[in-house]
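A protein record in our archive is deliberately plain, so that people and models can read it alike. The record that follows is passed on verbatim for readers who wish to inspect the format.
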Amino acid sequence: MNKYRIKWNPSFCLWLKEGFSAKTTLAVVHTHYFLLGMVFFLLLVLLEKSFSFTGPKTGRVLDVYHIGLNLTVVMFVVRGIVQVLGTALSAGMDAAISGIAGIGHILLGISMVLLLMQIRRSVAGKDELK
């Protein structure tokens, strides 16, 4: 009998060991992707409607944001699958997963700061017009 089976998890569909019930990073993938991938952009739409902050560089900044978000989420999934399967990782492989996730977080952070700077410039420009 196969010791793995596909089981529906409310936040993620994944391979689980029979009877697996421990907490892994897979439990937070859906929440992170939902908040950073949808709610963040809904807030940006509201800010754009209020302050018209977009410019010629906004598309590139959002591309960096998407790359960072997807890189981070992929590493969340990789880390979670390793946790579920109970795979023993070498120190180098463990550091590589953390490092790639860290690069994703850095890209997210840089793009958020750049977007906030664009918004601040736009708000300051509107204040000068009053």
